[in-house]
Design goal:
By secondary structure, the chain is mainly α. The N and C termini lie far apart (about 25 Å). The mean pLDDT is about 75. This is NADH dehydrogenase subunit 5. Keywords: Mitochondrion.
Length: about 20
């Protein structure tokens, strides 16, 4: 579950394109 918490921000950044 911890991985999800760490990957969520990374995926969000990729989705934003920044």
């Amino acid at each position: 579950m911890y991985l999800l918490i760490v990957f969520l921000p990374l995926i969000g950044s990729s989705f934003a394109g920044f």
